[in-house]
Amino acid sequence: MKIEIKSRWDASILFSLETDSLKLCIEAAVKSRANLSGADLSGADLSGAYLSGANLSGADLSRANLSGADLSGANLSGANLSGANLSWADLSGANLYGFFSFGPGGSRNCYTWARWEPEGYMVHCGCKTLTLKAFEATVREKHGATYHAKWYLANIATMKLIAKASKADYKRSQKSAPRGDAGGGRA
Q1: pLDDT tens-place string over residues 4-50
Q2: pTM
Q3: What is the rounded distance in angstroms from the CA atom of residue 125 to the CA atom of residue 84?
Q4: ω into residue 104 within 30 of 0, thus cis?
Q5: Cα(154)–Cα(78) distance, rounded to whole angstroms?
Q6: CA distance 114 to 132
Q7: φ, ψ for residue 35 (rounded to 5)?
Q8: Is 28 helix (H, G, I), strand (E, B) or coil?
Q9: Which helix H or strand E contains 87, and what residues bound it?
Q10: Positions of E strands within 47-119
Q11: What b/e sequence results for 33-44 when a residue is b if at least 16 CB atoms lie within 10 Å of its CB, and e otherwise?
Q12: Which of 98, 134, 148, 170 has its CA 20 to 30 A from that of 82?
């Protein structure tokens, strides 16, 4: 069947291919060095996909399953990753401008990342997305005084500083963001 990858902004076709799945189509697009900037990939199952070096800047990856995906060296600046599952994804060398990420580590040995979104400064850890305050409370409740708690809390302290320092920039970016940008602004 013919699979099309469309722009989130104007529905123009960025890449198409006769193949069996969206995952195979995207991997082929990346292999051919197609520009997937602004792609609408919301809710896509891209678990385990090889996306190393992909240009996904400004892409809508909200609610996408990227668990175990190779995103090393990918350009994810300005991408909407709200609710995306990045468990065990390789983000080494990825351009995450606008995001604060740390890991792999913690109790699941995964990457955790945060950024400003319309709901506030949101932390994405595994398949959970919580406000920074709720994330801190969850860490304290679940991990007590363990090594993992100390690891998370050290990073939470840094996230608080980044959130405070970047709030004005986020608000400015939302005033100038293209219509339809749900959380893809810079932090």
Answers
A1: 999 999 999 999 999 999 999 999 999 999 999 999 999 999 999 99
A2: 0.66
A3: 10
A4: yes
A5: 26
A6: 8
A7: -85, 110
A8: helix
A9: none
A10: 100-105, 110-117
A11: ebebbbbbbbeb
A12: 148
